[in-house]
Specification:
Elements (H helix, E strand, L loop, with lengths): L32 H23 L5 H8 L2 H33 L4 H16 L2 H9 L9 E4 L3 H7 L7 E5 L1 H4 L2 H26 L3 H9 L4 H31 L12 H12 L2 H30 L20
């Protein structure tokens, strides 16, 4: 039985010739004359700046390099700038992580205390904080004692004499010099790091912590082993910026004052020889060099903790059963 309609079969298509095909598109790149104007202006400005730096006698490059190579200046760079930066950041990062965990606690007392600490130390300028830290010795005229709290009252109530203190320090020796600088800068940094660490911890899905606790980890271990390693991707970049800012803020140690500090020593040299501007140039060169090293370290840390979160396409999977090279 055949169909009522006949199959017309394939329809012949007309042959196309070269003349019928579209020609190549003659694309013209978009012109950006504004860019070339901006580049020309920048080149002129750079040439003017280079001419100023190389020809103006007020720079006095010979004196700049002589001031940079003085022993007190090098000692100030190592102790007052680099050492204080490291110690302050250790105190700041450790305290910041602890405060962040307290802020995220379900206990309102712990959360409130962490918020109060963060509010206070973020509100007070670091220069004023360092100046205040250097005067705290007046509050402890009998020394800074460590022992049983309110021991003098308890001993008085019991009709006894003596004290229950195992260590007493001279407060005027504690709240001075590098120690006062590290305490002031470190406590201030802890307030900022608390917010940075809190943001990093909150960026990790809560399911990660719940899964770790389901596997038998306590909350502290789960925080150390699971949450914080993942939060480092968010924490490291602003922490690097804070470290660079801390290195520059060591110039505020003049509020204590700390004499073994880079800028203090350079200022002293400048005041003796009436060379104010050259010593400012010398300090600028030292800070540029130190911050450049920190930026390189920050780059590698960000690349390490950012593995798996980049924009590069993943490598193709090797076929099953493929032998190793």
């Amino acid at each position: 039985m055949t169909s009522g309609t006949d199959d017309p079969g394939p329809v012949d298509q007309p042959a196309t010739t070269a003349a019928d095909r579209p020609g190549a598109i003659d694309a013209v790149p978009v012109r950006h004359p504004g860019r070339w104007v901006a580049i020309a202006v920048l080149a002129v400005l750079f040439a003017m700046f280079a001419h100023l730096v190389l020809t103006n006698k007020e720079f006095d490059w010979k004196f700049v390099f002589q001031a940079m190579n003085q022993s007190p200046v090098l000692e100030g760079l190592v102790k007052g700038t680099l050492l204080v930066t490291v110690l302050s950041m250790v105190l700041g990062v450790g305290g910041g992580v602890l405060l962040a965990v307290m802020r995220l606690s379900d206990n309102p007392i712990l959360s409130g205390v962490a918020w109060l600490f963060t509010w206070f130390f973020r509100s007070v300028p670091r220069y004023i904080l360092l100046f205040t830290m250097a005067t705290l010795g007046i509050l402890f005229k009998d020394g800074l004692s460590f022992g049983f709290p309110f021991d003098w009252k308890i001993i008085e109530w019991l009709g006894m004499s003596g004290d229950w203190r195992f260590l007493t320090l001279d407060a005027n020796q504690v709240f001075t010099g590098i120690v006062a600088g590290v305490l002031g800068l470190g406590l201030s940094e802890a307030a900022y790091m608390a917010e940075i660490a809190r943001a990093g911890i909150m960026s990790v899905d809560k399911g990660q912590l719940e899964a770790a606790e389901a596997l038998g980890m306590n909350r502290g271990k789960a925080m150390r082993r699971v949450v914080l390693p993942q939060a480092m991707r968010v924490i490291v970049p602003p922490t690097g910026n804070e470290t660079i800012a801390m290195l520059k803020d060591t110039s505020l140690l003049i509020a204590v004052p700390v004499t073994t500090e880079l800028f203090y020593q350079l200022q002293s040299i400048g005041s003796v020889y009436y060379k104010t501007f050259p010593v400012a140039v010398a300090a600028t060169l030292y800070y540029l060099a130190a911050t450049s090293v920190l930026m390189v370290g920050q780059y590698f840390l960000e690349r390490h903790f950012g593995k798996g979160f980049g924009t590069k396409a993943p490598r193709a999977a090797r076929p099953a059963g493929a032998g190793g090279a």
